[in-house]
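Whiteboard transcription, Tuesday session. T.W. wrote the structure tokens on the left side:
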């Protein structure tokens, strides 16, 4: 009887721990983002895992800016601090942080095969799986369906069409009431977000990806200069001068209060723009970003956030189990339905519930598969240096410097970096 009771208890404990052998409860921590509803989603999912396992998790919030978050992580990891077990990392950081991250392969079984293979490849650094994908991002264009209709414009296929429509609608709206109306908002602050925008402008004009797949610096070309010149001409014309200091949330703030015709942002902004308290609810469309005209194409930067275990964690097993739970199909489905976060599991793009909640998701599968990667694989640990050279140059051009000379200078800076880094 006693033996029976003991085995029943063990079976119950196994059940509660999702089938793994029951371990004594531990306390771990996770660094989650707080942009939009990220924190709320993270807390809910973490609470679910705590309920299942009996472990306790402390949530540490991090700055919204990807650039500031990286600085914080680097500082913490350099001191080998064990106070954060699970880190939410940007898709472009695998190479930068790899030496501080645990190999997840021994913990995750076959699950990586469910995810987009390019993302798993992205997270595999010298044969070690240093992170698991949590959600994917791709740059998209939001537009005010009602304003385009009212003023007789179709959704723009090129940046030139967008510029003309934005200007005309902005002027007409200002004349008839909303003096605060602007044509376009995006991420123009000097940080990682501007690198994403600049890459889209350049690539969409057929100007390449700044650094090509072989590691050559390609940015100094006529198409790239044309793209950046056009973007420079927007500031103060169709984009507010303040865009030079806008991140994702600042851009969303202007668009969602009804003060911009177009917005470049990530998919998360969709659910928020459609929220009950949103002044633009029911009046927003989403589409792939415009092309740069003849010889160009649509180009959306690949973004997204992944989860990693710090090498200095005292509980890597539990930390990896939390990651397996958070990145699972069931959890990604929840995030997609509740807050329009793009799953990293292709099968979820055929899921009727996910599609019902996000009518545009089916259309995002192709842009996601073809998304333009930043040169983070090539630059590896030097990516942040590369990107900061890019966003500084783009910012100077948005602030009025002539594109031609500034792009030439950028190419020289990147050539020097390539030489020093030896890629
Ligand atoms: C989004 C993307 C991320 C990118 C960041 C830039 O969070 O998912 O990959 O680096 O925006 O601001």
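and on the right, the sequence the group agreed on:
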């Amino acid at each position: 009887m006693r033996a029976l009771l003991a085995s029943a208890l063990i079976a119950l404990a196994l059940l509660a721990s999702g089938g793994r052998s029951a371990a004594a409860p531990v306390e771990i921590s996770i660094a989650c983002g707080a942009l939009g509803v990220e924190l709320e989603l993270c807390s809910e999912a973490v609470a679910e895992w705590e309920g299942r396992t009996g472990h306790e998790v402390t949530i540490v919030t991090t700055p919204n800016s990807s650039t500031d978050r990286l600085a914080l992580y680097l500082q913490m990891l350099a001191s080998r601090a064990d106070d954060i077990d699970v880190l939410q990392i940007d898709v472009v950081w695998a190479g930068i942080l790899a030496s501080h991250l645990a190999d997840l392969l021994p913990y995750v079984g076959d699950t990586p095969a469910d995810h987009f293979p390019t993302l798993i490849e992205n997270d595999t650094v010298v044969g070690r799986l240093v992170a698991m994908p949590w959600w994917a991002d791709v740059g998209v264009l939001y537009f005010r369906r009602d304003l385009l209709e009212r003023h007789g414009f179709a959704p723009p296929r090129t940046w030139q069409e967008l510029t003309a429509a934005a200007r005309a609608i902005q002027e007409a709206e200002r004349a008839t009431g909303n003096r605060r109306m602007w044509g376009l908002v995006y991420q123009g602050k000097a940080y990682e977000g501007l690198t994403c925008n600049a890459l889209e402008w350049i690539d969409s004009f057929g100007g390449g990806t700044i650094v090509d797949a072989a590691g050559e610096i390609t940015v100094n070309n006529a198409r790239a200069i044309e793209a950046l010149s056009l973007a420079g001409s927007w500031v103060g014309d169709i984009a507010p001068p303040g865009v030079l200091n806008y991140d994702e949330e600042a851009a969303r703030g202007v668009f969602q209060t009804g003060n911009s015709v177009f917005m470049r942002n990530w998919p998360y902004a969709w659910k928020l723009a459609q929220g009950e308290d949103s002044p633009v609810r029911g009046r927003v469309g989403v589409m792939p970003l415009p092309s740069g005209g003849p010889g160009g194409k649509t180009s959306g930067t690949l973004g997204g956030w992944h989860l990693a275990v710090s090498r200095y964690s005292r509980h890597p097993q539990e930390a990896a189990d939390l990651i397996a739970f958070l990145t699972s199909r069931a959890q990604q489905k929840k995030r997609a339905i509740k807050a329009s976060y793009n799953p990293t599991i292709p099968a979820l793009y055929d899921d009727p519930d996910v599609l019902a909640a996000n009518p545009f998701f089916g259309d995002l599968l192709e842009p996601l598969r073809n998304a333009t990667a930043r040169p983070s694989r090539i630059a590896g640990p030097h990516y942040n240096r590369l990107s900061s050279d890019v966003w500084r140059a783009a910012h100077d051009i948005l602030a009025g410097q002539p594109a031609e000379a500034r792009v030439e200078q950028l190419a020289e800076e990147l050539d020097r970096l390539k030489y020093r880094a030896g890629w």
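Someone added at the bottom: Residues 238 and 330 are 42 Å apart (CA to CA).
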